Amino acid sequence: MKPFAYHQPDQIPDAAKLLTSIEDSKLVAGGMTLIPTLKQRLANPPALVDLSKLGSLKGITDGGATITIGAMTPHAVVAASKLVQTKIPGLAALASMIGDPAVRSRGTIGGSVANNDPAADYPAGVLGLGATIITSAREIAADKFFLGLFETALGPGEIITAIRFPVPLKAGYTKFKAPASRYALVGVFVAKFAEGVRVAVTGAGPGVFRVPPMEAALSSNFDPSAIAAIKIDTDGLTSDIHAEADYRAHLVTVMAKRAVDAALS
Amino acid sequence: MGNVIGIGAAPKRKEDQRFLTGRGNYVSDIKRPGMAAGVFVRSPHGHAVLRGIDKSAALAAPGVIAVLTGEDVKADGLGSLPCGWGISDAKGVPMKEPPFPMLAQGKVRFVGDMVAFVVAETPEQANVGAELLKIDYEVLPSVVGLLEAVRPNAPQLFDDVPNNICCDWELGDKAAVETAFRKAAHVAKLSLVNNRLIGNPMEPRAAIAEYEPGTDRFTLWTTSQFPHVVRFLMGALVLNIPQHKLRVVAPDVGGGFGVKQFHYGEEAVITWAAKRVRRPVKWVASRSEGYVSDRHGRDHVTEAELALDETGKFLAFRVNTLANMGGYLSTFGPNIPTNLYGPLLGGVYTTPAIYCNVKVVFTNTVPVDAYRGAGRPEATFVLERIVDVAASEMGIDRVEIRRRNMIPKEAYPYQTPVLVQYDSGDPMGCLDGALVAADVKNFGIRKAASASKGKFRGLGYSTYVEACGLAPSRFAGRLGARGGLYESATVRVHPTGQVTVMIGTHNHGQGHETTFAQIVSEKLGVAFENVDIVFGDTDRVQFGMGTYGSRSLVVGGAALSKATDKVIAKGKKIASHLLEAAEVDIQFEAGKFSVAGTDRSKTFEEIAGAAYVPHNYPLEVLEPGLEEQAYYDPVNFTYPGGCHIAEVEVDPETGTVTLVNYTAVDDVGTVINPMIVEGQLHGGIVQGVGQALFENAVYDEGSGQLLSGSLMDYCMPRADHLPMMKVETHSTLCTHTPMGVKGCGEVGTIGSPAAVINAVVDALSHLGVTHVDMPATPNRIWRLLQNASLPVAAE
Ligand SMILES: Cc1cc2nc3c(=O)[nH]c(=O)nc-3n(C[C@H](O)[C@H](O)[C@H](O)COP(=O)(O)OP(=O)(O)OC[C@H]3O[C@@H](n4cnc5c(N)ncnc54)[C@H](O)[C@@H]3O)c2cc1C
Question: Per its UniProt entry, which superkingdom is the organism in (chain B) (predicted)?
Fold first, then answer.
């Protein structure tokens, strides 16, 4: 790990200012993704801006038709939240499937969404539920936020402060864990709203994506059988030493069916 | 005072007190005054000409003390890393043995090959220095696959090793095998790959070296399974340091599995560097560094054929294997896929003719060497898989075909056609025991229950034997070993009767401090807590070959037993004097020397006291003191074995294989501590299951990059992958080891891969699946099912 300056601001504007004024500086949330890259000397930021003193970034609030989760809320807190478990059990389940206990205790929803790892779980939940990403500067709809491999709509110095989830009628998440990393080899989030169904897939390609044919089929019949015959095009899906693209495509259908099952149970 | 805890008892492990309370003493815990930090710079290319290294920027960096390269090694006239075995082909032509320089010279041959060593005040400064080295590589195409490496136009690693073939080795009677195949009623054939593995001990490798100018002595602390062998290989053959000027210490070591039983270039470089910079130097590998430098295991491509008569009797077995050596020959490298492979192809069967050809091949990968089981899991896998293939092709039940060919208990000692003679065993007894323990009788019910959930259930057998207790020096010498394979122990009885044992094996998880103490406690009648076992320090322990090949108890324990017998013999002489009786009338039992037929006796402590305070002592005929040493070189290997039964459930929708039951009934000879045996079996089985279902070291052909170079990409088995295991023993006693022990360190890893894969194939056999390569990953199973065009039912 190369030496770096360390800042712990207690106001969001201060944090944003540090971030824009120190070139190449980085925010650190749980550090679960960032610290290993520093240790491997893959990243060399001159300064880290730690978000842990920004109390307003923590916690989960009930907005009636929405739930808002502060960016610094660790996965374990979301998984154990009675509010999330009651209103969006699929989201609590998703959080409980991330990594291991240590990672869930440190890793945060803001860090995960900002990082947009192609195999991360939260992006599927955020896109599947059509959530809104609230930043230090604006609000961004999930459909406009994830721009592909580790790319997001976040601008320079922009800090995610919270994520607002609409409460669905039903929702479920199923994840086929990559054998070694236990990230999603394929993860599918399915959410049913009065206005229709959203299906979001992570792990299968370079970034989280929706599956319109499945959404249409499930909107008319919210049952696994409705999508059993829908095959995903293998074009653009990932092939690596863990899984070939056609296997990933197959798993999308299997996981989607199981996610619907999970949503119904 | 505590109690005698002897053979067959299961005390908690002595060493766990310090391990579980964080008081172990590992190499990375050690700090020496004035210690500097070292970092190895490794090749990022699989194959390249090393055109030059510009050190200037690195040397100018703050804190950098020295930068050493292959040119410096050459200038100092140092040797290359020795190979401990020299095998030959059928005509007696020795293997090709290109030099393995401790820092690359002229060329790099695998990603991770060491190019330079940077020493600095701190690890961070050494890393910065390493980044500032300007290394000029001319990148060449790499070859990593066995089939690719032996092709005529493949990239050549060494100019004088045509087709990258190090040795074309064979064993057995080729003509007899051919004759038998001509007469066969059926020939079963099988092509398979034995996947490359990475050992991943919990503690990464590390070393500290120090030079004392005052005494001209070196000390190397290293994560090794065999410090004396490192002292010999490195001191005598690489660095030209006299043995008495070199101390090698392997303190607590966090797991080895073979990975730490080689002499590594890092050890030689750091020891050499310590003298050059006149500072102690420390290096601790990162996990990532371990992936590209710890010796890998397995990696075979095999074609096998089994000839049978019409009743399913095995007539002959023919095996052709390509075995990967990686970029250079490691310490035991060429021995593993030859001498530890071919002789095991007889298994527990009466196959009269066996022929095996192994082409040992260089590739642009990390050198391949022993990994738990070493050669024997590979042999067992080929044999136990093809037995299943033959059974299914001939329509004979898999258990029945094994029974028809098994060596009956009465036939031991049994001479196989592939060198080894089994002294004892009862494979049928293990099989019968396992059938009951695994509740095979009710398997049909369980299979139907799985089917009702849309899952396929399968059962797999592996009835196997292995050769371990790596030993007989004479035998090994004939096979090409360049060293001996005995073991030594010293039993030092203190004046107060407590005992310190110095032994040449090395404990890195096996529980020797407990097992060996039990042996001494039993034999001398001293309290278990009054026995300490010392190992891992060439200044404290007389000599030793170390721990690998399930040899510690079998060879080291035997040496200990012999040394203990000598203590008793001397004690009897002392007692005969003190008790004024003839020596032949002195009996030793339960810690007491007594005169037969009388109530006159002396305790063990009294005898020890007399030996050190020899006021009334037969000084004319006996030296004072009570300390004895023994070396033991066995007459044969030992042959543990048994029957493993795996039960799996396959989810056809995702291809996921779940191991649902596992049963092992093993013959490990005398059991000293049943808890430790069970633990060794558990660990061994888990590593075999890892190979069968999860682990795979994958290289990119062409670039030679390791694609599975981290725990995120290389799947280690985890607790939630495993069922509770049923582990039982069905022991026959070894006829030639002093205590009848056979060893249990590797049996689990040797028996299990075949059992698991046979179960997977069984689960899928109704779809026409006849073989699955390891690891049986979900993707691979799904692909097989696609090809079998399985109609997957919608949920
Ligand atoms: C062993 C292991 C297993 C894991 N398994 C999984 C898994 O199964 N599924 C999964 O989804 N994830 C997994 N993860 C990742 C884990 O969820 C991480 O915690 C998460 O990706 C990043 O969160 P963090 O809080 O640690 O972020 P950090 O590592 O602190 O930061 C990550 C990146 O996001 C930026 N960032 C952080 N917070 C903000 C913010 N509020 N606004 C803008 N940018 C920000 C940082 O600058 C950095 O670039 C695993 C991680 C590990 C180490």
Answer: Bacteria
